[in-house]
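Figure 2 data, in text form.
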Amino acid sequence: MNYRKTTPEMLAQAILENIGKKIKTKPIPIDGARKAAEIIIKYLNPKFGK
């Protein structure tokens, strides 16, 4: 779908065609905060980063 060429009617039709369809998505990582903390601690206190 081209954003600039999409009319409200085209968008509505696309929504109607996709309601209830199964979608496949990649898993979302949930360990980002832990990884960030590990990186930050290395810079704040080098003895913990070893």
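Caption note: The longest helix spans residues 32-44.
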